[in-house]
TrEMBL record:
Pfam families: AraC_binding (PF02311), HTH_18 (PF12833). Keywords: DNA-binding, Transcription, Transcription regulation. It comes from the Bacteria. This is Helix-turn-helix domain-containing protein. Residues 1-21 are annotated as: Disordered.
């Protein structure tokens, strides 16, 4: 029986404090620049939190898996969920606290949502260090954010992680090499499990097929490569697609835009965070 790998979000005891830029230290809301590759250690909040990358890309990981949010996405983490963050490229991160009394309006589990123009502007204003000129203005603007999120469908950038040791042995192999072209039967032989059993476990434990799970894993890596400035063609090859066309189709299906459009959004976000 393969040994189970460590949870993707280890919970140290005691939890080390997250490392934040000076302008964000001691705050649950605010804005700051994070360097490429920077990580925030596993932690939790008594309130809800929205994290938006006005420029760059971030990944949020919990015991339920990993959510990736490029510049046109926002991550939502409800109160009490232990989570960590990793930032790709130089990222202009915006942290926005959601009071407990409003968290019931949003999903009870971590999620990723599209950022509409109205939602983006509201988040930018709420995370800036500016005085409240009219009493209650921030509360009214936060209500707009909640309304926008409740009207926005959840997006499929979540990569769940399994609990079963046999399935973890397979997903470990794919995490180590997302471009690996092996079939599920070949991965099963390497992990000591049958193809039919693994196929069933992917659907019952992860809620998706093996092909879909590997596609989302590859898209996560593709987002990081594109954020780092890699070309669409080189990203397709690095992540396991046989040609750019099939990569573009898969990227558009999962992210909701083409890789070229995503790169253009990245360039725009750097000039107007």
């Amino acid at each position: 029986m393969p040994k189970s790998r460590q949870s993707p979000v280890p919970v140290p005891s005691p939890l080390p404090p997250p490392t934040l830029p000076t302008e964000l230290q001691g705050k649950l809301s605010g804005a700051g620049w994070m360097p490429h590759g920077h990580s925030l250690a596993a932690h939790s909040h008594t309130t809800g939190q929205l994290v938006y990358a006005a420029a760059g890309t971030l990944a949020t990981t919990t015991e339920r898996g990993t959510w990736v949010a490029p510049t046109n996405r926002v991550t939502w983490t409800p109160p009490g969920f232990v989570h960590s963050h990793r930032f790709y490229d130089r990222t202009h991160v915006r942290l926005l606290t959601v009071p407990v009394e409003l968290c019931g309006e949003l999903l009870p589990y971590p999620s990723v949502f599209a950022v509409s123009p109205l939602l983006r502007e509201a988040v930018l204003v709420l995370t800036e260090d500016r005085p409240e000129n009219r009493p209650g203005a921030r509360g009214r603007l936060l209500a707009v954010v909640i309304d926008e999120l409740t009207d926005t469908p959840e997006l499929s950038l979540h990569l769940p992680e399994p609990a079963d040791d046999r399935l973890r042995a397979v997903t470990d192999l794919l995490h180590a090499d997302p471009a690996r072209p092996a079939t599920l039967a070949e991965l099963g032989r390497a992990a000591g499990a049958g193809e039919r059993t693994l196929s069933r476990l992917f659907r019952t434990q992860l809620g998706m097929s093996f092909h879909r799970w590997r596609t989302i894993l590859r898209i996560h890596h593709a987002l990081a490569h594109l954020t780092d400035g890699m070309s669409v063609t080189d990203t397709a090859m690095a992540c396991g697609w046989s040609n750019p066309s099939s990569f573009i189709d898969a990227f558009n299906d999962v992210v909701g835009q083409t890789p070229g459009s995503y790169r253009a959004d990245l360039r725009d976000s750097l000039t107007s965070p």
